[in-house]
Amino acid sequence: MRKVAIIGSGIAGLATSIRLALKDYDVSVFEANTYLGGKLSSIEKEGFTFDTGPSLFTAPENIEALFSLAKKDITNYFTYRDLDESCRYFFANGKKIIAKKNVEAFANEAEKVFGEPADNIKKYLQNSNKAYQNIGELFLDFPLDSSLITKSETYKALFSVKFPYITKSLNSYNESSFKTPEMIQLFNRFATYNGSNPYKAPAMLSMISSLEQSQGTFYPNGGMISIIKALVQLAKEIGVKFHTNSKVEKIETFKNTVTGVLVNGKKYEADIVVSNMDIYYTYKNLLSDNKFAHKVLKQERSSSAFIFYWGIDTTFSELGLHNIFFSEDYKKEFQHIFEESILPDEPTVYVNVTSKFDKNQAPNNSENWFVMVNAPAHNDHNWEEQKEKIKRFIIKQLNKQLNTNLEDHIVVEETLSPLNIQEKTASFMGSLYGTSSNSKMAAFFRQQNRSKHYKNLHFCGGSVHPGGGIPLCFKCAKLVADDIH
Ligand SMILES: Cc1cc2nc3c(=O)[nH]c(=O)nc-3n(C[C@H](O)[C@H](O)[C@H](O)COP(=O)(O)OP(=O)(O)OC[C@H]3O[C@@H](n4cnc5c(N)ncnc54)[C@H](O)[C@@H]3O)c2cc1C
C-alpha cells in the first residue's frame, strides 16, 4: 500500500484524503490545529453557535460525489435544504430586493423595483450559464498544464463564449448589460466570491452568478460545520488517519523526490505528499524555497475580511439567511481594499443568520449574526484600532436600514481579523481565496496541482488551481487524486 501524507485538513485536504483512501492508499492527514476543517470551523458562546468561515453553500453535487464513490447513503451523514431565495439585497438608496431562485420571479421583481428590463437579467443569466457550461467546467475539471492549452476543446470553448467575457472587466461588462446602477452593483458583487475586484477582474467571473442564481443555493442542516463533520466521519470509516496538533515542519526530499514529512521533530515516511496549506508557506516554510515563494507573490492576493460574530437578543423578520447591505460608492470600496490596502470607510456589510433555519443555534427569540465586511489582505494593519471604527459604521448602517438600535441588542461578541485568519489557518496575509483574479490571465498563473520540481509532491486547496471557495476545493481534490492514481 502506498503511503500518502496530507498536510492540512481543509475542505480540499479532507476530500483528497477520501478519494485516495477509496483507491486503497494508506492516508494520514497532519493538521496543525487542534480541530479539523481549516477555514471552515465554528464556535459556540453563551448559547449562540456561529460558523466562523464560509457561509454560502453551492454545488452540493461535489460532496454527494464522495459519498456515492464510497457507496454510502449521504443522508446518514449530511442533509441540506434547497433555498428558494439566494440573498436579500438592501441598497444605500433604501430600495431592496429578495433574489428569488426562480429567475422569472427575480427578473420581474427587479423590473418593478428598479426599472431594469426583466429580459436583461434573463439574457445575462442565460449567457452566464452557457459560458459556465462551455468554459467553466472545462477549466475547473482539468489540470492546469500544457494539455489544457493544447486541447482542441479549449479553443472551441473560448470561441463559444462572447468576446467581452475575455476583453472586458466584470464591471464594464455589467454596465453594458444592465441599465440600472442597482443591477450593475448586484452583479459586480460576484467578483468578491473569489476575493477579486469587479473593476479589474475579467467578465468571465459573471459565470459565478449562474452557479448561484440559476443552479441555486443550499443550507446544510446544522450549519456549514456539518460539511466537515460528514467528511471526517466518512474519512475515518474508510481508514484515513488524522493527527491533530501536528504541525508539519518540513517536506523531506531525497534527490528531488519526496520521502515524507517532519512533524514535531519526527519523520513520517511517505511515498506521496499532498500539501493542502497555502502554497506560499508550502514553498517558504516546508521546502525553504524562497525563489518559488517569491514567484507566488507576483500575483496579487485575494481580499480578506473583518468579521463580527454577534449574539442578538431579538429577531428581525426583514432578514433572511444571506443579507447584503450595499455601500453607496462600490468603486471606492474596492479602491480602498486593493489599491490603498485600507479597510473601506463605508463598506458593504454582509449579514448571515443561520438561526433563521437552525433554531438551536441561538437562544429563544434571539439570532446568531455573522457580520462581515471585505478587507484588504493583512499587511502591517492595526486591526484592534480599526475594530471600533468599523463597528460604529456597521451599526449606523444597519440601524438606518432596519430601523433599530442594534447597540442595545448585541449580547455576545467575537471578532476575526485578517491577521487572525492568517494565524488560525496559515493563509498568507489572511487572504480568503489565495490569489485574486484581478487580471485577465490570473486563472492561468495559479500554481498547478503537481510540483514540477519534486517528484510525488502535489498541491490542493484554495491557493492553487482551480482556486478558492468550497466548490473549487472539492474539484481540486478530484484533480489531485486522479493525477496521483
Ligand atoms: C471568513 C471566510 C468566509 C468565506 N466564505 C466563503 C463562502 O461563503 N463560500 C465558499 O465557498 N468559500 C468561502 N470562503 C473560502 C473557503 O473557506 C476556502 O476557500 C476553503 O475553505 C479553503 O479550504 P482549503 O482546502 O484550501 O484549506 P484551508 O481551509 O485553508 O485549510 C488549510 C489547513 O492547513 C493547515 N495547515 C497549515 N499549515 C500547516 C502545517 N505546517 N502543518 C499542518 N497543517 C497545516 C491549517 O491549519 C488549515 O487547517 C471563506 C473563507 C473565509 C475565511
Total number of distinct structural domains = 3
- CATH topological fold name of the largest domain: FAD/NAD(P)-binding domain
Strand tally: 19
Bound molecules: flavin-adenine dinucleotide
Q: What is the CATH level 1 assignment of the largest domain? A: Alpha Beta
Tell me the fraction of residues in β-strands, as a range. 15-25%
- CATH superfamily of the largest domain, by name, is FAD/NAD(P)-binding domain
Shape: globular
Mean pLDDT score:
94
Number of helices: 18
Using only CA atoms, what is the Rg? 22 Å
- Which strand order spans the largest sheet, edge to edge or round the barrel? 7-6-15-16-17-14-18
Judged by helices, strands and strand pairing, the structural class is: alpha/beta
Q: How does this structure look, described?
A:
It is a single chain. With 485 residues, this protein is an alpha/beta fold. The model has no long low-confidence stretch (mean pLDDT 94). The chain has three domains: 170 residues, FAD/NAD(P)-binding domain; 101 residues; 125 residues, no CATH class. Helix 3 crosses helix 4. The two termini are 12 Å apart. It is built from 18 helices and 19 strands. Flavin-adenine dinucleotide binds next to helix 1, strand 14, helix 16 and helix 18. The site of flavin-adenine dinucleotide has 36 residues, from helix 1, strand 14, helix 16 and helix 18.
